[in-house]
From TrEMBL:
One of its GO terms (molecular function) is ribosomal large subunit binding. InterPro entries: NFACT_RNA-bd, RQC_Subunit_NEMF. Residues 325-418 form the NFACT RNA-binding domain. It comes from Labilithrix luteola. This is Fibronectin/fibrinogen-binding protein. One of its GO terms (biological process) is rescue of stalled ribosome. Pfam families: NFACT-R_1, NFACT_N. One of its GO terms (cellular component) is RQC complex.
Amino acid sequence: MTPNAPLEGPPSAFVQEADCAEQVVVLKVRVPGRTSFVVVGATRSMAAAGLLSSDVRKATWGGKLPAGFARQRAREDALEGTRVLAIGPSEVFIDQQGASRVLRVEGRRVIVTDAPLPPSLPAFVDLDEQAREALEARGRELAEALAGTAIEERRIELQRTLDKAKIRIERRREAIRTDLAKIAEADKMASQASWLIAEAKRAPRGAKKLVVTDWSTGEPIPLEVPLDPSKSASEQVEAIFKRAKRLRLGGRVASDRLTQTETQLAAVLDVRERLGGASTLPELEALALEAKRSAPRDVTLPQAGITTGAAGAKAKLPTGRSPYRTFVARSGKKLLVGKGAADNDALTLKIARPHDLWLHAKDRTGAHVIVSLEKGQTCPAEDLVDAALLAAHFSDARDERAVDVQYTSRRYLRKPKGSPPGFVIVDREKVLALRVDTDAVRLLLEREDF
């Protein structure tokens, strides 16, 4: 038989469905009285073809393909409607529109190419129970190996992600420590105010430095301060103290940020260490989410699969950019904030789902905020407050201590024809009288998910 010779016989072993990734192909095959799953695939340690029961497939992979494997839709469409002819040790022979072809492993990829059907292989439709049991054992071994590969590759991927997060956090920690050192220096300079002010008044125009004696420790310590000769000494000393005051005002914030940064670093390192002990994909994903909640600004998770809806889809404007910014609430929930008037329309009218929660500073110009909810779910009070804080902050009421924030389900919004960008009519609104907590706003802004 030549590779392109038409095949004869009744249309049996019909492929009803194909699930394909680069490393594995699964064919749902129907023969009279039986449905079988034929699998061919490869890992670093093995390449094989066999049979795979639906129970083993579900228990081992949790779905049609191992988690994280990218689907190849075009190949799936091409393989549906073919016929399985025979199964070899690491290849599956098929009839594709009357031509004999083979799915075989090359490297760690499954490829489809022309090939004649070897006469030594038993026809798939004629397999006896003993042969089927051997093929099922081989298929189960391959499925477990592929699952192990998916776990290990995901583990390595997450380890790299956390290594990058560690570097980011350590850099931020050093920057904050540098700021605190400057604050300490400013405090020291402020303690020398009396000597500097007095000497500055006596300094001649064009002086390049001030030299005074610091007696604050009880011992004489020479102190030299460089000056710009084009400016008066008194003006420059006054500027030094103003800067010192600004730095001292930021001292508490910097100390809080340092504590938060060290906590985030410890959490990321802890998750990084525990990744090695995770033995299943759900365990790895739980650890990944834990790291993300601990340091949302620094941990950018590589996607293990495709998500949909307002919480997962990075919907884009025609220009290719995202119309919203993403912040992480204290609970870990993602809060979406429109970037501008046209972006508000895109976020609210095209991305948000009918059951998602919409918020906006009442009677103000500002951003639309979306909280993704499941059908029938009520927004937790903590998430509602965090979303309201963002709605108030990204509005022209930003500097006010008390702001009314309106909220309702997305389904109760409508946009009149011809209305300006960002304008919507709200039905069934509720209003939250929000007292703005500036510390809570600051923490939310620091938890932006880039």
